Predict the structure.
Amino acid sequence: MSTQGQNNAPILVIGGTGKTGRRVVERLQGLGRPVRGGSRSSGIPFIWEDESTWEAALDGVSAAYVTYYPDLGFPGAKEVVGRFAALAVNRGVRRLVLLSGRGEEGAVAGEDALKASGCDWTVVRASWFNQNFSESFFLDPVRSGELALPTGDAVEPFVDADDVADVVVAALSDDRHIGKTYELAGPRLLSFHDVARELSAVTGRTITYAPVSVDDYRAGLRELGAPEEFADLFTLIVDGRNANLVRGVQEALGREPKDFADYAKETAPTGVWDA
């Protein structure tokens, strides 16, 4: 189980206010483990673009959950993550759990850079999150009643952020996960047509899916001031590389992952999708 003598040292959670990071923080606190959130607004701030913030954030911590924003597969990420991991190990932080993405070549390069530090690593490769529809990219389209996305008729085994957090906490808490790569997915393959139907059913509103071209979507990102590279991530769905079910949740936790329908039923009463 956990390394003796380190239970009183804080665990650094980079992106501690994000979709998975917030849930990891809550779970660790529930277990009575001290946690240090790593974000711009933290008491001890952590900023990926400002490497002068890294050392203080790592001071005295026993392990770290590493999430790279905006995405581990983006240009430059592997170099930055590699430098961070090397510093962590140099500071005595050997246990690193890295959030990665399924099917991303660039993300694999980031994984390799982290491993090259000599740390005790676990890699968690996640499918697209259910919570993308309620906490980020796709929330406004759901509220507007139209998911206009460059995904054609492709399917994705959406995974729940609660399941991702449970795997991460297990990896941070139990040495048997060292050296493991877990690919996480939900129990079903869903198209965006399916998603629109399921969201319509739980909200009582008509939510439609309207396929658009990648170029049109990229132009929309540009207008919003969002990174255009986000459009490239849709390739991971459209080309079918991740159109299969994997069993990382079962392997790490010994239970089945949450289904999208259950996520939707739990989320609708919060009112987040009310128009």
